[in-house]
Amino acid sequence: MNRRIVFSLISVVCAALLAVAFYMEYVMLLDPCPLCWLQRYAFIGVGLTALLAALHNPGGWGGRIYGLLMALLSAAGLGLASRQLWLQSLPADQVPSCGPSVDYLLDILPLREVLSIAIRGTGDCAEVLWRFLGLSIAGWTAIFFTLITVVGLAILVGAFRSSRRPEITGQV
């Protein structure tokens, strides 16, 4: 399989995951916690990187750099999902207290403090509101982030061929 197809598939998967997140928020009325918001931004970053790579279609090291960038963004998302899974596994008496909404925090605090609070997570992040096949939303995002990280690293080490054809210079 060539890299352009892989990058295109990853961008479509990220768009689909974001569509599911918005469906859960606006149709199922599940409020995203601060860690959920950050995981969404990680999927946006991965999806945009993959889309840009698919459109740019660089050969050689250019494609590998896109693979590395995608793997790094996805690994960051995996770290956030892992933090949320850890919070969800805590006994009820050890769960941090719930906090105000992200919108309110952005209104009253500098962005750096909002990010710090979001990364630490709140009691809202420990609440499991939905499950599919026994996994919470954070569990599913961890699976997707893991898969995308592995694919990004595979692109980095050259497991997928470039879809660019060598240029003919006309020299004999």
Q: Could you characterize the architecture of this molecule?
A:
Helix content is 68%, strand content 2%. Helix 1 (3-26) packs antiparallel against helix 2, helix 2 packs antiparallel against helix 3 (61-89) and helix 3 (61-89) runs antiparallel to helix 7 (137-156). The protein is mainly α. A hairpin with a 2-residue loop joins strand 1 (131-132) and strand 2 (135-136). It has a two-stranded antiparallel sheet with strand order 1-2. The two termini are 31 Å apart. The chain has 7 helices and 2 strands. The protein has helices spanning 3-26, 34-56, 61-89, 102-108, 111-120, 123-126, 137-156; strands spanning 131-132, 135-136. The model has no long low-confidence stretch (mean pLDDT 84). The protein has one domain (3-156): Bromodomain-like, CATH 1.20.1550.
Helical stretch tally: 7
The CATH architecture comes to Up-down Bundle
Protein structure class: mainly alpha
CATH topology description? Bromodomain-like
- Report the β-strand fraction as a percent range: under 5%
Proportion in helices = 55-70%
Query: Can you count the beta strands?
Result: 2
Oligomer: single chain
Task: Name the average pLDDT.
Answer: 84
Q: Report the span from N to C terminus.
A: 31 Å
Q: Evaluate the radius of gyration.
A: 19 Å
Any idea what the CATH superfamily is called?
DsbB-like
Q: Residue ranges: pLDDT <50 for 5 or more in a row?
A: none
Name the helix and strand elements from N-terminus to C-terminus, one letter apiece: HHHHHHEEH
**3D shape:** elongated
Strand order of the largest sheet: 1-2
Total domains: 1
**Major β-sheet annotation:** 2 strands, antiparallel
Main CATH class? Mainly Alpha
